[in-house]
Design a protein that fits this description.
- By secondary structure, the protein is of the alpha/beta class.
- Helices cover 36% and strands 20% of the residues.
- The protein has twelve helices and 14 strands.
- It has helices at 9-18, 24-34, 48-57, 129-143, 162-173, 193-202, 217-223, 226-229, 232-246, 264-274, 299-311, 332-336, and strands at residues 2-3, 58-59, 64-70, 76-81, 87-95, 98-102, 106-108, 123-126, 149-152, 185-189, 207-211, 250-256, 279-285, 316-318.
- Helix 6 links the parallel strand 10 and strand 11 (207-211).
- The chain starts with a strand and ends in a 5-residue tail after the last helix.
- The structure holds S-adenosyl-L-homocysteine (SAH).
- S-adenosyl-L-homocysteine (SAH) is lined by residues 113, 115-116, 153, 157, 188-190, 211, 253, 255, 284, 286-287, 289, 329-330.
């Protein structure tokens, strides 16, 4: 039997029309889904007949919380079970401005970044739009906290799952559902150039983060195989076009790895690369993943790197590390639970 949530909202309207229903029914069902309904029977404003025929034709899947870890700093990490037995991670972070959830977009990842835990077992499959929405709904329900910010920086590459990403963003933005403001959502990419152009056109109000991690082509290729297909000069052109088209600043993610990309020379090259661009650099000290053998840059080096960028006209900050005591680096919990092989 097909899962009703597997359908796009367009397809749901068509399925309901085939059952002789008007299109507003789809909105009613969407509201129930977003309120966490687990069966059609709970949808009390639908007729008994409609509930029965939907139950006869469709299942209504949902994600389950397999593990919840709460860090001493309030960060919560969730291992979420999918209907096919796979699992993904989501992380809830508490900030002064509100609660932010980081969600996954794929089961595993095929981008192959050398420092990242999520890619070690490759990609198993894309997440459906409803599964991404359920990450949000289930974490909100379990934590009892209102989530008002969302980052797509968990397991997976959002632009490698573009159609589902778009459907998901429209659903989470819908006032009948969570009604999250586009400005409170950030999508992070490892630099898939065609995705950046599409995204500027389709979601100009959603924030974009680009994982850079290196300031020249050779160095970037070593850390990120995707750089061989999407080279740094073209990536920077795409980023410039993005800021021109949207008027929005790009966040560049730069993970500091000891002896690889954390020298003053690296900082100088990065400053030259980004000078004059509408951007901000987020420096993240590597969260070491045992299998990679890579080490985190020292705190002092991270500060010197930030100071260099700032004094050369490139806004930069060091991202606070949260959830250190609960396997915070993405993909680590899933790996530990033996879910990716
Ligand atoms: N695929 C997307 C989003 C997921 S990764 C992307 O590459 O942007 C989210 C961020 O975490 C990326 O900047 C990624 O490079 C970074 N990251 C991955 N593993 C990390 C680690 N062990 N320590 C620090 N940052 C890491």
């Amino acid at each position: 039997m097909k899962d009703f949530k597997d359908l796009t909202r367009e397809e749901r309207r068509a399925a309901l029309k085939a059952l002789g229903q008007q299109s507003f029914r789809e909105g009613q069902i969407f509201e129930w889904i977003c309120r966490g309904a687990r069966s059609f029977d709970e949808m009390s404003n639908l007729s008994k007949e409609l509930r029965a025929s939907l139950s006869d034709s469709y299942t209504l899947g949902s994600l389950s919380v397999e593990v919840e870890q709460i860090s001493s700093d309030g960060t919560r990490k969730y291992l979420l079970g999918l209907p096919d037995g796979n699992s993904v991670e989501a992380v809830l972070m508490r900030y002064e401005y509100g609660n932010s959830l980081c969600i996954s977009t794929q089961v595993g990842c095929r981008m192959g970044c050398s420092f990242c835990a999520s890619t070690i077992g490759g990609k198993l499959r894309d997440l459906k739009a409803w599964e991404m929405l359920d990450e949000f709904l289930v974490c909100q329900e379990r934590s009892g906290l209102k989530l008002n910010h969302l980052v797509l920086m968990g397991i997976g590459e959002p632009f490698d799952n573009y159609a589902n990403l778009c459907e998901f963003l429209r659903q989470i933005h819908d006032p009948k559902g969570p009604g999250l403001s586009y400005r409170n959502i950030t999508v992070s990419t490892c630099g898939l150039i065609p995705g950046i152009a599409d995204f500027a056109r389709d979601f100009p109000q959603v924030n974009l983060a680009v994982s850079l991690h290196a300031s020249d082509q050779e160095e970037r290729e070593k850390l990120m195989p995707v750089a061989k297909a999407y080279r740094l000069p073209e990536l920077m052109d795409a980023c410039r076009s993005y800021t021109e088209a949207t008027g929005r600043r790009i966040s560049f993610e730069y993970t500091l790895i000891a002896g690889k990309n954390d020298s003053e020379e690296d900082a100088a090259r990065l400053a030259r690369l980004l000078r004059g661009m509408l951007c901000h650099v987020n420096l993240i000290r590597l969260n070491p993943v045992r299998e990679t053998g890579l080490r985190s840059a020292e705190q002092g080096k991270a500060q010197a790197f930030r100071d260099y960028l700032e004094s050369h006209g490139v806004p930069a900050s060091i991202r606070r590390t949260l959830g250190q005591d609960i396997d915070a680096a993405c993909g680590q919990l899933r790996k530990k639970m033996g879910q990716d092989f």
